[in-house]
Amino acid sequence: MSRPFTSLLMVALAFGVAVLLAGDLGGEVVKITTFDSIRTPFTTKVWIVEEGPTLWIRAGSPSAEWYQRLVQGPGVEIERKGRVTRYRAIPVKEATPGVNALMAAKYGWADWLIGLVRSRDNAVAVRLDPAS
Length: 132
What we know:
Layout: H1 3-25, E1 29-35, E2 41-47, E3 49-51, E4 54-59, H2 65-72, E5 75-80, E6 83-91, H3 96-107, H4 109-117, E7 124-130
Antiparallel strand pairs: 1-2, 1-5, 3-4, 4-7, 5-6, 6-7
Helix pairs in contact: 1-4, 3-4
């Protein structure tokens, strides 16, 4: 292997590792549990932001499996700071630009880094309403 190719490969590998770590190390990470049609639980790590009393998460794409499950059944559980709370997850596409800005402010470099490899064009904001 040539030296320039090896250097380029190492830079690409380091960037990939940084993107992977940014999701977990970039700030607060919560666990969302969604359920399929027979109530099988699936847990996914996501970022969360607050806008006053309202909690928001964001799907990077409407094709994300966890997002598809909450569209089919909006009852979800969020584990935050060791406490599990039930919510009704409501997709609010028109709130996405504001939630993107909140995520950028809270997660800073990690949000920026992930944004380099994943466009926010298809992202969907999801409001978490307390379950009744």
